[in-house]
Amino acid sequence: MKVAIIGTGNMGSGFARAFASQGIDIVLGHRDPAKAAALAAELGPNVEGGGIAAAVKFADVVLLALPYQAVASVLSEAGDLRGKILIDISNPATADYKELLLGHTTSAAEEIQKAADGASVVKAFNTIFAGLISPETRAGKALQTFIAGDDASAIAKVRELAEKLSFEPINAGPLSNSRFLEPIGEMNIHFGFFLGMGATVAPAWVRV
After folding, report:
1. What CA–CA distance (Å, rounded) separates 56 from 207?
2. What's 78's domain CATH number?
């Protein structure tokens, strides 16, 4: 499985380092190819970096490590998305991270699916802060990620990637359930940054 990571911010670089450490073939994409190439050089000779369309063409799975507001314009530069699996990790938060831009009747993931003709969008990792992506940062503690999608084979591949990073993947149902997952991600932002718990918290679903 070959994975493209679009974006080189905290989340993009966190996933890039974690996947590379697990021997997963990755390529980094950015509107400024030099930024992707610089991060790839840090990660070793087996990681490539360049433009968005080149990264997407290389990959079976494309992880969108982007703010929701940036996704539509990036997809317009991505080239042919048919047959690709897109992992949406975003929460459609306002600029101050205190509210969501949309919800209840749609979600970021569903809007991305509408814009990504021929691709299969899977929601995952939207409740995980960047500092918890690497298994080493969790000191052996289990951490769940909720996975929602409409394509069983796409979900299976995202589950496989989650398990390689020692996450516990939780079946969260169809992609439309992203309408519920994104508010959970926003609540986690509030716990972490506005309610003083810090960026090492994450939600979990517990069977009692």
Report:
1. 38
2. 3.40.50.720
Q: If we measure between CA atoms, which residue out of 167, 157, 166 comes closest to residue 2?
A: 157
Q: How far apart, in whole angstroms, are the C-alpha atoms of residue 134 and residue 93? A: 24
User: What would the mean pLDDT of 24-38 be, rounded to a whole number?
Assistant: 96
CB atoms within 10 A of CB 136: 10
Number of domains in the chain: 1
pTM score above 0.90:
yes
Which tops the pLDDT comparison, 91 or 139? 91
Q: 133-138: list long-range contacts, CB under 8 Å, 24+ apart.
A: 133/11, 133/14, 133/15, 133/17, 133/18, 133/165, 134/14, 134/17, 134/18, 134/21, 134/165, 135/18, 135/165, 135/166, 138/166
Tens-digit pLDDT profile for residues 32-44: 999 999 999 999 8
Give the angle 20-53-79 at the CA atoms, nearest 5°.
Answer: 130
pLDDT confidence tier of residue 172, bands split at 50, 70 and 90: very high
